[in-house]
Specification:
The complex is a heterodimer. Chain A is an alpha+beta fold. Chain B has two domains: about 5-125, Response regulator (Rossmann fold); about 145-210, Winged helix-like DNA-binding domain superfamily/Winged helix DNA-binding domain (Arc Repressor Mutant, subunit A, Orthogonal Bundle), CATH 1.10.10.10. In chain B, helix 6 (about 145-155) packs across helix 8. Classes of the chains: A alpha+beta, B alpha/beta.
Chain lengths: ~950, ~210
């Protein structure tokens, strides 16, 4: 501001003076004069300024005296004036520049700040530049701007003291370097001189002056190298007068290799070169062109280009030299700066963690940064084909080579940016994923002049991406392949993910994506749940969503083909760190088949249970240790109590139960056998008496076997219990009959038979007699015991009848009567006879097999007699077979014409005399009577049939008897 | 002959006959016990009374004759055999072995009762004899060892003197012993003592003659 004001013309001072006076006049205050006073300070120089200061001093002194000596208004006015003056002085101090204030006239050159040597200082405002240089500066700047060619321009810059100082500006497009030049330093003791005699160099000095007029600096020296003229300014600048320059410093003249004074002003590094070339030129007359550093008066070495040419006389003899020196320091420094910058840039490029390269517009590689060379092991040579073009063979993995070359060729042809990802060769022999991008740099005409490219190692990225991709793929596959349905719900219950199987199950059409996936899924799910389950499922789900409890439910889902399948659905919430639900992960498992199996199992179990409960047997189960764990309904009914009803303190349930239900006589045996089975695992079978609910003991047969698991361990005992009361009774009766028959058979000789008959008859007779006597006794006693008598009489009748029966039978046997005959199924009699003999046959391990032709008519016969015959034949057969033979006795009965033919076939030794065996008293057995077969034949013949024997092949005998099928019961006889 | 202090054991496998006999004996006022087999009879706890055993020859477990043989060594009631078909050899054998009678079924009540009567009488007698001998044995047991030595010599008919020499004691001492024996054995005379010794089956060790020679 201050500087700007300084440049305003003196007219401003007049204006400010006028404004100030007007203000004084109008306000009546003296402060108005401050403005013109300020203007005075601003513009006054030299004596004028001094006059202003003196004026102010006098005014201040006068006002002070007036204030001291005059009272009243004058004093006040004086004080005001004094204050005003003081203020004016202060303004003056502020406005007047310090050097002037100090009255120091020596100019301090204005230099750029040392901290920013490369900074490009602003071009000084026009006002600070010498008016003569303005046009040149503007021209140079414009030229630099428009052409891009750097321009160096010297101009004079006005210093604060009003003097001008030479400065050079280097103008370049984009950047500039400001270089300090201070050649024009003027010093108070500037000294320069002119040679007294120019000698032969007259012409050279003349030429030098011409140059000086052109260039501002010139000099001349004679053929010996002694300066005869140097532009005074130059002498000042190097602070050397002619005498100094030409002073001989050693023994020899300069031309002879001695040292001259001017050499002191040359940089020690350059001085030998400068001197030797000059000597050479002086001797040969060749023009002298050299660049060296020259010591300035300021103590700095400054680069100069020196050129000198000889002048010659008519004879061609060198008369002198003239030349000039041009300050090229700024160029040198600029060059150095540029070189440093380029180096820096190169370093930058080399240190950037990327591989950078460039090539010509035609695709010839020209540059690879260091990193690229280090990393790939390539050099410009290795990527250059013999014809100079780029070859990528050593850089790119063979799989990508073709593609890369195609892309590259296309980019070179069209100029399109080049971008490719490939496996790049590495110095260590590996290949790594690399992405290369290149862009073309074009000139003004649009011609490609350079390709600049960068290659970035993206191997880790690619491998990570690949890995991620693979992992994702794997996860997706897993989720889709899991043999379950996976799904995901938002916290509000909207499904946002179904796995592939679920989608397939529901038959969702992936293609129809008009509606958002969530809605589509929700709709599909809603439609798929079985209507009967829907309410339950949605309510359950809602409850879980609200509470955050895991969801678990079984429901039916409709498959895409319309079939409902049972699902076991489960879902659990995924919680974030503060416990709120992010989403629900669910799994539905198709349990339809399982449920069906379970249902079938249940059904089968139910039917088995029913089977067990309805079987006409008493069934029970026990634990491996024998403790009862199950009883069928029938068994509970039979016993009249349940499983736990007989539990007693100090007794196991087993013991308690056994004590309660087993007949005391059988108990020890049962317990022992049962314990044995439990200990050994062997099946248990026993006949014993079991107490029925009404207290009666009934004979039962109990069988228990162990049920084992796959490892063979007993897991349960299963038992069954038959009531065999009737069997036992029947068995008892059977045994009795058997004994009688056996006895009868034994007594089957005539003599024995009679004795047997006598016994059979006498037995009841003896009873009759005894009872009769008893009866008589009861009747004759006093008083008669009628009751006992009655009882005795009943016994007499019974026994007498019994005797009569025996007698009757015997009669029938011997008289061959048919009185006792009635119609019987032969089948029945065969089985009765077999049962009678079964015990004996079993003892001898012989099977008795009966084969009766179906549909045989009932026959009229004496059951006992035929039974006796059969027993006799069976006994004979059984006894004929060896006990170890384990043979079988076959009894067959069939129709043969009018006869019913019955065969009893054994596998014994056979019979030697087939007819003799039927003769009385013939016996092959040691204890035999020889009567059995005789009587048997008598009996069969009395029935109208025949009995004979045949030999079997290979062994054994067959006894055959026939009975007439149409035989009538001869009741009328 | 209604007697409460007798009992008839009946062993017959035929229930009708067994009952009938029981009934008959009851009507006759005779106490009876019925057994259906020999085993039952042997195993039964029987009262110690004058008794009779009516035994069927044909029994389911062991034959009646066999039973007779088995119990022969013991004191057992006299046996009356009954049989459905008595043959001579078996009846002879039965009688030989001490059976009271061998009745063939059917038999009359008189025959049966006579047989029972004689059997019981026989048993009574046997039992009385057994009781008397038992008493004598008891008395014999009370004799001192020396007296037991004296007794056989005395009943053998040796003179006091001879007996004293035999035993190496004085005649006076022997006489004291002899008197004591007589008293202890409740013998009224020497003849009586001789009869007692006979009952006790005390062997006569020395004869007077032998001693005399």
């Amino acid at each position: 501001m201050v500087a700007a004001l300084r440049r305003t013309p003196p007219a401003l001072m007049i204006v400010s003076l006028a404004v100030g006076l007007a203000a004084c006049w109008s306000t009546g205050a003296l402060f108005g004069v401050l403005a013109p006073l300020g203007a005075l300070f601003l513009y006054a120089r030299g004596y004028w300024l001094l006059a202003v200061w003196i004026g102010l001093l006098i005014a201040f002194a006068a006002s002070a005296l007036a204030a001291l000596f005059y009272p009243g208004a004058i004093r006040e006015a004086a004080l005001s004036l004094g204050a005003l003056v003081a203020v004016g002085a202060c303004i003056g101090l502020l406005l007047v520049p310090a050097p002037l204030r100090r009255g120091n006239h020596s100019a301090v050159p204005r230099r750029p700040e040392p901290g920013q040597p490369e900074g490009f200082g602003p071009v000084p405002a026009h006002g600070a530049i010498h008016p003569d240089d303005r046009a040149a500066i503007a021209h140079a700047a414009a030229y630099a701007f428009w052409t891009g060619v750097p321009q160096v321009t010297g101009y004079r810059l006005r210093q604060p003291d009003g003097s001008y100082h030479w400065t050079e500006l280097r103008a370049e497009p984009g950047y500039g370097v400001s270089v300090d030049i201070d050649a024009m330093v003027s010093r108070p003791d500037d000294r320069w001189s002119v040679a007294e005699s120019l000698g032969t160099t007259m012409e050279a000095v003349k030429a030098a002056k011409v140059i000086e007029s052109l260039h501002g600096k010139a000099w001349a020296f004679d053929a010996m190298g002694r300066f005869t003229y140097v532009t005074p300014a130059a002498q000042v600048a190097i602070d050397m007068a002619l005498e100094d320059l030409n002073r001989r410093l050693g023994e020899r003249e300069f031309i002879d290799g001695g040292e001259a004074g001017w050499m002191r002003g040359v940089h020690p590094d350059d001085v030998d070169r400068a001197a030797s070339t000059l000597r050479h030129c002086l001797k040969t007359g060749e023009p002298w062109n050299i660049e060296y550093r020259m010591l300035r008066a300021t103590g700095q070495y400054v680069w100069h280009r020196i050129s000198a040419r000889p002048t010659r006389d008519d004879n061609g003899q060198i008369t002198g030299w003239f030349g000039t020196s041009i300050d090229i320091d700024v160029y040198k420094k600029t060059e150095a700066a540029l070189r440093a910058r380029e180096q820096h840039l190169e370093q930058l490029i080399d240190t950037v963690p990327a591989m950078i390269w460039s090539m010509t517009g035609a695709g010839h590689p020209v540059y690879l940064n260091r990193r690229m060379m280090e990393v790939t092991g390539a050099t410009t040579e290795t990527v250059t084909a013999p014809d100079g073009s780029l070859t990528l063979k050593r850089m790119i993995h063979p799989d990508f080579l073709e593609q890369a070359e195609r892309t590259f060729a296309r980019s070179v042809a069209t100029g399109a940016p080049y971008a490719i990802k490939y496996l790049q060769y590495r110095a260590d022999g590996t290949y790594r994923w690399t992405e290369t991008r290149a862009e073309a740099l074009r000139d003004e005409a649009g011609q490609i002049i350079r390709w600049y490219g960068v290659s970035v190692d993206i191997h880790d990225l690619i491998t990570t991406q690949t890995e991620l991709h693979l992992r994702k793929q794997e996860l997706t596959r897993l989720v889709d392949l899991v043999p379950s349905f996976l799904w995901r719900l938002t916290p509000t219950g909207a499904p946002n993910f179904f796995n592939r199987r679920f989608i397939d199950f529901l038959g969702l059409d992936e293609g129809s994506l008009e509606q958002p996936q969530t809605e589509q899924y929700a709709a599909a799910l809603k439609a798929a749940v079985h209507p009967d389950d829907a309410a339950r499922v949605w309510a359950g789900l809602k409850d879980c969503l609200g509470s955050g409890r895991p969801f678990a439910m079984r429901y039916r889902l409709r498959r895409h083909d319309g079939v409902y399948r049972w699902m076991d659905g489960r879902a659990e919430p995924l919680l974030d760190e503060d416990g709120s639900i992010i989403q629900w992960h669910g799994l539905s498992h198709d349990v339809d088949d399982q449920l069906r199996v379970e249902e079938a199992l249940r059904e089968s179990e139910r039917s088995l249970r029913q089977l067990v409960e309805t079987l006409p047997a008493l069934i029970y189960c026990a634990a491996p240790n024998g403790e009862p764990i199950y009883r069928s309904e029938k068994l509970r009914e039979f016993l009249g109590f349940g499983l736990g009803d007989k539990d007693e303190e100090g007794k196991t349930r087993l013991t308690g139960t056994l004590d309660a239900i087993i007949h005391p006589d059988d108990l020890p045996d049962v317990k022992e056998r049962y314990a044995h089975s439990l200990a050994t695992g062997s099946p248990y079978a026993m006949k014993h008496r079991l107490r029925r609910a009404d207290g009666a003991y009934r004979w039962v047969e109990t069988r228990t076997a162990a049920m084992r698991n796959a490892e063979g361990e007993i897991i349960q005992w299963n038992g069954i219990c038959f009531e065999i009361e009737d069997q036992v009774r029947a068995q008892e009766a059977l045994t009795l009959t058997q004994e009688r028959l056996a006895r009868a058979a034994q007594a089957a000789s005539l003599a024995e038979l009679s004795a047997s008959i006598a016994h059979e008859v006498n037995q009841p007779l003896a009873a009759v007699v005894a009872n009769s006597h008893a009866c008589q006794r009861w009747l004759t006693s006093d008083p008669p015991n009628l009751e006992r008598a009655q009882k005795t009489v009943e016994r007499i009748i019974r026994d007498a009848n019994s005797a009569a029966d025996v007698v009757g039978r015997v009669r029938a046997l011997f008289r061959q009567t048919v009185e006792a005959r009635s119609f019987w199924q032969l089948d029945t009699i065969l089985h009765e006879a077999r049962d009678l003999m079964l015990e004996e046959a079993t003892r001898r391990r012989i099977r008795i097999e009966i084969d009766v032709e179906p549909g045989l008519p009932p026959l009229a016969l004496d059951r006992i007699q035929i039974q006796q015959v059969l027993v006799n034949l069976i006994r004979n057969g059984v006894e004929a077979m060896e006990p170890t033979q384990r043979g079988a006795l076959h009894i067959r009965s069939m129709r043969a014409g009018d006869l019913i033919r019955t065969e009893v076939r054994d596998t014994g030794a056979g019979i030697s005399a087939l007819e003799k065996v039927f003769e009385p008293f013939f016996s092959t057995k040691s204890n035999g009577m020889g009567m059995g077969l005789a009587i048997s034949r008598t009996i069969i013949e009395s029935h109208g049939g025949r009995l004979w024997a045949e030999d079997n092949q290979p062994s054994g005998a067959t006894f055959i008897f026939t009975l007439p099928a149409e035989a009538k019961a001869d009741h009328d006889r | 002959m209604i007697v409460d202090d007798t009992i008839v054991f009946i062993v017959d496998d035929d229930e009708a006959l067994r009952e009938a006999l029981g009934e008959l004996l009851e009507a006759k006022g005779v106490r009876s016990a019925l057994f259906q087999s020999a085993g039952d009879y042997i195993g039964a706890d029987k009262p110690d009374l004058p008794a009779c055993l009516i035994l069927d020859v044909e029994l389911p477990d062991i034959n009646g004759l066999e039973l007779q043989r088995q119990i022969a060594r013991d004191d057992h009631p006299p046996i009356v055999f009954i049989t459905g078909h008595g043959d001579i050899p078996s009846s002879v054998r039965a009688i030989k072995h001490g059976a009271v009678d061998f009745l063939t079924k059917p038999f009359s009540d008189t025959a049966l009762m006579a047989a029972i009567g004689s059997a019981i009488a026989q048993d009574r007698e046997t039992r009385a004899k057994r009781a008397e001998v038992a008493l004598l044995r008891q008395r014999y047991q009370e004799l001192s060892p020396r007296e037991r030595e004296v007794l056989p010599l005395v009943v053998s008919g040796l003179l006091n003197k001879q007996a004293a020499v035999e035993l190496g004691i004085s005649e006076v001492t022997l006489q004291i012993h002899r008197r004591s024996v007589m008293q202890k054995m409740a013998a009224s005379s020497l003849a009586d003592l001789v009869r007692i010794a006979e009952r006790l089956e005390i062997p006569i060790q020395h004869s007077r003659r032998m001693g005399g020679i």
